[in-house]
Write a structure and sequence with these properties.
This protein has helices spanning about 1-5, 20-40. It is mainly alpha-helical and about 40 residues long. This is Serine-threonine/tyrosine-protein kinase catalytic domain-containing protein.
Amino acid sequence: MELALQCTNESPEERINMVEILARLKNIKGEFLTERERRRS
C-alpha cells in the first residue's frame, strides 16, 4: 500500500521513480515466493 501511495503523490518531484518502483516490486515478489515455498515444506 505504501508503494502505491508513493506512486500517486500529487507533486511529481516527490513521486518515486520507475527504477525504484521496479526494484521494490521485485523485492516484494521475491519475499512472497520465498515465504510461499517455505510454507510448502
